[in-house]
Amino acid sequence: MSHLLLVDDDEDILSLLSTFFRKHNHTVSVAADGQAMFAILGAHKIDLVILDVMLREEDGFTLCQRLRANSRVPVIMLTAMANPTDRVVGLELGADDYLVKPFDQRELLARVKAVLRRVEPGNGAPKQIETRPVLCFAGWRLDVVRRELRSVDDALVVVSSGEFDLLLAFAEHPQRVLTREQLIDLARGSTHVAFDRSIDVQVSRLRSKLETDPRNPAIIRTVRSAGYLFIPEVTRG
Fold first, then answer.
1. Which of helix, strand or coil describes residue 118?
2. Which helix (H) or strand (E) holds 141?
3. pLDDT (average), residues 10-19
4. How many beta carbons lie within 10 A of that of residue 32, not counting itself?
5. At 43, is the secondary structure helix, strand, or coil?
6. What are phi and psi of 51, to 5 degrees?
7. For the whole model, what pTM was predicted?
8. How far apart are CA 47 and CA 4, in angstroms?
C-alpha cells in the first residue's frame, strides 16, 4: 500500500481524489498549501506527491523546486493550463509527470502506478536489485539499490526519480546512440505517454549535475537527428 500526498487548495478535489485513491488501496494524506505539505513530508514516509500548480500562496512550481532541492520523492503535477511551455517548466523543476485538468481519474491512477512501478514503495529500491549492481562511470557511482547518485568526490547528488531512471537507461546502454523514443521506453516503459521535449529537459537537468561544462558535454552527447550518446565506459561495482 503506497502513501500518497495530495496538495490542492480545492477541498472538493481533495475529497474526490482521496476517496478514489483509498478505494484503490492507497493511504492518502492531504494538504492545502506548502506549509502543510512539508509538515506531512517531515512526519511521514510519502511515496508520491500529487501537486496542483495553481495554489493561492506558493504555487506548485515553487513547491516542486523547493522539494526537489533535497528530496527524490516522485511528483506528479496537475494544472488547468494546457500550454506545453508550462509542462516543460514542471519537468525542468524536477516533476516526474504532468497532467492537465480536467482529467479522467483512471488516467491519473495509471500514471501514479507507472511512477510507483519504477520506484519500490517505501524505500526507493527496484524490484530486481540482484541483477543491477552499482554502475560506475567517469568517477560517478549510480547505486540502484539505494537509488542514489554520488559524484567523483562521493557527495550525494539529488536527482528526481525520472532523472534517475533516465540516467540508469543511459548507463545500461553506454557508447550507443539512443533515440528519444528508445529512452522513453527504457526509462518509463513503452506504455508511458510522453513527448520528445520531456527527454530533452531531463537530459539538460542531468548535464547540469554531471558535466563540468554542460555546453561541451563529456558524458551525454547530442547526436543531431538521431538522439543521445552516453560517452564513458561503465563498470559494475
1. helix
2. strand 140-143
3. 94
4. 18
5. helix
6. -120, 120
7. 0.60
8. 6
Which of 101, 79, 80 has its CA nearest to residue 90?
79
| Answer CATH for 129-236 from 3.40.50.1000, 1.10.10.10, 3.30.450.20, 1.10.287.3510 | 1.10.10.10
CA dist., res. 32 & res. 186, Å (int): 35
| CATH architecture of the domain formed by 3-118 | 3-Layer(aba) Sandwich (3.40)
pLDDT at 7 over 90: yes
Return the amino acid letter for 214. P
Distance, in Å, from the CA atom of 220 to the CA atom of 204, rounded to the nearest integer, reads 9
| pLDDT for 126 | 37
Domain locations along the chain:
3-118, 129-236
What pLDDT is recorded for position 189? 57
Residue 101 has pLDDT above 60, yes or no: yes
Average pLDDT over residues 75-87: 77
- Rounded distance between C-alpha atoms, residue 50 and residue 107, angstroms: 13
Chain position carrying cell 522513453: 184
Q: How many CA atoms lie within 13 A of 44 on its CB side?
A: 18
**Separation between Cα atoms, residue 81 and residue 61, nearest integer Å:** 13
Task: Find cell 539499490 and name the residue.
Answer: 145
Strand-pair partners of 4: 28, 48
Give the residue among 66, 72, 68, 22 at the shortest CA–CA distance from 47: 72
